[in-house]
Amino acid sequence: xxxxxxxxxxxxxxPWHDVQTVFGTRGDPSSxxxxxxxxxxxxxxxxxxxxxxxxxxxxxxxxxxxxxxxAYLDGEPVGWCAVEPRTSYSRLNRMTVVKSSPEEPDDDSxxxxxxxxxxxxxxxxxxxxxxxxxxxxxxxxxxxxVIEGYPVDPAEREKVSSAELYHGSVSLFAxxxxxxxxxxxxxxxxxxxxxxx
Length: 197
Hints:
By secondary structure, the protein is of the alpha+beta class.
């Protein structure tokens, strides 16, 4: 990515058409809009872009700070990272991987990174690492004490598709200063960054 300008912005500071560009019209991001961890099973069964996109748009309007950051490469929107207080994710708090966290489930000072989206054509260019760095800054400004991620460890799986990497990878989190605090399964870790240190 030499000579390229990479910028990370709060989703609240981005035009909505840039958000639509990142989430796209194909694949999981285009239908989920980072609502999976916020919906119960019944809601999720009937969810679609038509229901999820307006929910994210309303969350951006209602929440301060907003629920994530966008990446721009030379002015073009290329990626997204969801980060907000872990208590905002009702489904996440019921998942086995999160239950292995040493943090209390109702602690608003614990933030979670739940999702990365990097557009096809812009992958393997350091955008995920920059997004995570921007998510850390965003959480710090929002008052986070700890940030958690629940990444995949590709070294522990025979094969990992790009779709499965929406959680991020263990190496990505480690490169941004996170340390492993739990390993609920061989291929999934709980990684934390303590912002008080």
